[in-house]
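Retro notes
What went well: the complex prediction finally ran end to end.
Inputs used:
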Amino acid sequence: MKKIGVFTSGGDAPGMNAAIRAVVRTAIYKEVEVVGILRGYNGMIAGNFIPLQSHSVSNIIQRGGTILKSARSKEFMTYEGRKKAFEQLQKAGIEGLIAIGGDGTFTGAKVFYEEFGIPTVGIPGTIDNDLYGTDYTIGYDTAINTALDAIDKIRDTADSHDRLFFIEVMGRDSGYIAIACGIAGGAELVMVPETLTTIEEVVQTINQGWKRSKTSSIVVVAEGDEEGNVHEIAAKVAARLEGKYDIRVSTLGHIQRGGSPTARDRILASRLGVAAVEALLAGKQNIMIGVVNDEITHVPFEDAIYKEKPIRQEFIELVRILSI
Amino acid sequence: MKKIGVFTSGGDAPGMNAAIRAVVRTAIYKEVEVVGILRGYNGMIAGNFIPLQSHSVSNIIQRGGTILKSARSKEFMTYEGRKKAFEQLQKAGIEGLIAIGGDGTFTGAKVFYEEFGIPTVGIPGTIDNDLYGTDYTIGYDTAINTALDAIDKIRDTADSHDRLFFIEVMGRDSGYIAIACGIAGGAELVMVPETLTTIEEVVQTINQGWKRSKTSSIVVVAEGDEEGNVHEIAAKVAARLEGKYDIRVSTLGHIQRGGSPTARDRILASRLGVAAVEALLAGKQNIMIGVVNDEITHVPFEDAIYKEKPIRQEFIELVRILSI
Amino acid sequence: MKKIGVFTSGGDAPGMNAAIRAVVRTAIYKEVEVVGILRGYNGMIAGNFIPLQSHSVSNIIQRGGTILKSARSKEFMTYEGRKKAFEQLQKAGIEGLIAIGGDGTFTGAKVFYEEFGIPTVGIPGTIDNDLYGTDYTIGYDTAINTALDAIDKIRDTADSHDRLFFIEVMGRDSGYIAIACGIAGGAELVMVPETLTTIEEVVQTINQGWKRSKTSSIVVVAEGDEEGNVHEIAAKVAARLEGKYDIRVSTLGHIQRGGSPTARDRILASRLGVAAVEALLAGKQNIMIGVVNDEITHVPFEDAIYKEKPIRQEFIELVRILSI
Amino acid sequence: MKKIGVFTSGGDAPGMNAAIRAVVRTAIYKEVEVVGILRGYNGMIAGNFIPLQSHSVSNIIQRGGTILKSARSKEFMTYEGRKKAFEQLQKAGIEGLIAIGGDGTFTGAKVFYEEFGIPTVGIPGTIDNDLYGTDYTIGYDTAINTALDAIDKIRDTADSHDRLFFIEVMGRDSGYIAIACGIAGGAELVMVPETLTTIEEVVQTINQGWKRSKTSSIVVVAEGDEEGNVHEIAAKVAARLEGKYDIRVSTLGHIQRGGSPTARDRILASRLGVAAVEALLAGKQNIMIGVVNDEITHVPFEDAIYKEKPIRQEFIELVRILSI
């Protein structure tokens, strides 16, 4: 393999730039040419390629976002779109791909390989940490620290006013961010999509806490909780608490995707980037590089996409004990 | 005066603890006893007083929120409530008050003085910076830096996805936070209650920016803008832009009230706290301590509450030039 | 067991408060009385005990330092000192101990148990991450992020002035902090006690980087490197580089011990705190609670203290590839 | 004037990029061509000029350092050097200059104007805040917040170990950073070059504090204090305190120059940048743009360089009262 391409796709995550840097420098170290593909699959279809040298990725390890930009591509979901992409890669002499993204990204890469034989190795870049086959995804550690910093700030005002706060964090299908923020933020309760928490339980927990002379409380809610969105949940709880507490809602939103990556995310991204290039050059394809028990693993795209990665139920219990 | 009380009231603001510390230590330095009144006027009515020593305020200068807690009191709005408060103060031997808060707090103090003759000196503590008679209020500098940090994070993701973001910051009646964040955050446009910005202007500015090959844009909106809340504004703009851009909305919310105060807020709070005790002991009442052109001022409560403090129109213009 | 004591000892680490909170609340949850021992073994000898309730540890999870204070005790190294400590514990009815600290702390606990039979369970709290039997120690994740934030700031000025910076991070006997900061900070080179890096190699790496048109460089040095302290190393390198580069030195120092703990450190501390109380109540003694491959482990004090925990040599290689 | 140049010179300061952005965009807004001169006067002599467009300064407002790089130039101190610089400017058609830097930078600009008639307008960019004619310089607000954050972290460990810390902050000739950090950091004492503080006074203050049951203390020392550097001061104090306290020293160093600028520094830099271009185009030269009482001022270089800007003595007193 003489020339490879690298791109970011789907929702951006802090640490993607650190991964791009690692990919580029490892390729150069291995004496392979490396090209950046802009805006994910859209840029592949359009032939938006830029040559990358070592200095192209200087001073980006600490930056949020992605210098290659990202997008979700509808055109790549069609055969026609993928054909165009293949032709662009051929024209540019790109023989292999490194895809940084989540399950949508890898689904596209898998189909693309099956149709056109372009080998792709994936790097898990998503704040949600919901990909099977890797203990951590790039961006997760930064996202939980960003959310936690926000929760700490909200606790200041919750505590000053004896309030009950419902705080929504990201995680449409997964409670990874919520559970980490709940434990680390000293929440009374965490509500996640994976586990049923009834309004009744919320009301009881709150009431018990205040009986033990708590004066402020925080409930962390994942966006995808089965009881509804955070405003609906807060309204239901408020109805049951009959005005006893001053209840507020805060949705953390897009700040969770940005910011300078943490040490962990940069190290993870660096390791995955090196390993991805090594795997691609060693003839691997259709796999995602992961980290399990701190060792590099190769996970078939199929597993990464379709297998479940459950959250630890003991962590839900941990919140309960520690909010006593 | 042998004994004074200090309390925080209304919305909390970062730096209130630094002000409490300064009040307590200055009182002790002047050999006056000082008592903390918990939860604002509610605690005054209930007689929730705690004696404060020098070490009571150790290690709090860096903390958000208020160790004396805060509240809005409905009972203090009645004559009966104020009478109870007066009796509690008399019983405890408290002869003067330092009130840390905003215009609601000072309105209460003014009436209270007129009815019961308890002298009060006010310290402006509110993130909104909308009090006449002081260039800055405690908490404003921290709030704009917190909001700015969030905007920086959102810019990472806006830029990675070529998005147009509408970001709502606090300021129900005032654009102080919005205008500062707009300039410092490199926004295309700022929408504040004090100035009319039509949807038409927003659409034009966005379109012009993208013609000049901008790929992402940020519009900062104060909560009290006359065009509606941030979701309504974004929807109106989206309707006019006909799907050309990927538009998102983010409401920063309560994080803006919390966090460790900045250097400026701590210094401001320290200076105001010292000056407030000095003024009270010198026989002043019904005044707020302010800082104008970096010098301490005494402002009658009446002025602080009722006079207008306009934002600088040149700053709106500044955003326009710098987003070219 | 009806009553247990908890204390922090040795160098403080961010997250110790989160561990104290977890210990206290788990004990209460298990209906066991819990007492805080102030200033480590010194406070045990002096009988400085304070009863702890659930609310005693409210709102501390996010705070650096330790509310129980810490110290190194010379008196506890003598039999006489330990005897006094034992008598104080007996008088207070304390039947078991949770010790939060590093190898010095656990050495003391081990001897104490052998002489007086007081069962102790240890929690690894040290920023150095050099304890065998646990993948991570409390404080390490925060320390590397604090150091990284400083390195990011120094890179700003290094880059603006085309400078070569030698940055010393903590780690007297261990390169854990240095290696993590080196990878995450995009350093050219990392110098750690565990591996020999000659001045010659440093000079070569720097020269090669600058030939490839690098204009600024960072070398991360652990305090305990065998080539001397950071000033000596910088001077030796400067002598060899013959004034070609503008060389500066920065020692990060004590900031690495402070600050609000990261999400990871709070979660780790919470898990370890719960598991420590459970182990003590289950009759365990002379063990440290650790986390290996994300699962709780019980490690004999002897192993934790005496066994080696090597750093990953591949990480040294990683720095070399990525600084190309 | 059809074409102007902008450069940064001397020590870098956070917010310089925000100033560059404002200069570039204002020039474009006024339909004047703008060129970036790399590495200060050295780049002027070497003719290292780069054309700047609006997008050249996109997404830099939040970055520390300077995209134009900075240097101190020995060659520009010679007539020969300045002549070369003049010839390069002539060749490039650059008719006026915006210089971002401190007194060394303005001294050079003044001489250059006198010899070659190139009009220059200066923007005060230095963390030290020691330039006459402006209340604040770009970078000062960020530097004090960075130093304060470090002091907060050190207080965590000082407090956990009952230590006395001497912390050195930047300010070779000026105590501006030290005094701000001293007030905001809750220091016992601040030692600045402008005021004599004897070792005797330090010893007394420390002893008095500990008599009032303080258990930890912080003394902030400016690098240029007349009693020597922070290590010498700490040693002298230690000798007098006869081992009563556990004394440590920390030098904050270069981190104070880096980091993302605060809201204030970005707003200040933006205002100064706009005003500088307006002044240059209006035919002004040999002046620095400043801000006094929140209004833009024009200060002759001569005044900015030679006049004294004293620190507020009342602030020294403030520290004394508040550390009671």
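What we learned: Chain C has eleven helices and eleven strands.
What to try next: split runs per interface for comparison.
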